[in-house]
Amino acid sequence: SLVFTRFIDMATNAVPRRQIVSRIAAGVLGGYVFTWGFIALSIALLFAVRLDFHDAAALGGILGLLLFLGVFLWAFAASSVARVWLVLAGGGALMTGAAWLVQRAIL
User: Fold this and answer.
1) How far apart are CA 62 and CA 43, in angstroms?
2) Helices and strands (H, E) in the chain, number of each type
């Protein structure tokens, strides 16, 4: 029957479970790392331009929340899971390192 044929077609074209778990992990964990790096860098840069620390932390946190939503959704929309991991983990590490350098220069 036509319904059974469509069901079989959907089952054969199903996404592997490992890829689904990887996308979820990339969205949650990779998004966290990327957002954490962004918030650390934004607080350091805003404080470096003489914005009060608490204002810099509040602004960085608000922008970080919006960024997390964006990267979380992008993790599921992107065509390559490897690219998602590379951008989120690599970008988070780079921003965290840059924040560390800015903080060393300030203090």
Assistant:
1) 11
2) 5, 0
> Dihedral sign, CA of 49, 53, 58, 64?
positive
- Cα separations in angstroms, 81 against 63, 69, 100: 25, 17, 28
Please state the pTM of the whole predicted model. Answer: 0.84
CA–CA distances in Å: residue 53 to residues 7, 50, 107: 57, 8, 13
Would you place residue 4 in the very low, low, confident or very high pLDDT band (cuts 50, 70, 90)? low
**Buried-exposed string 40-55: b where 16+ CB fall within 10 A, e elsewhere:** bbbbbbbbeeeeeeee
Whether 46 contacts 59, CB under 8 Å? yes
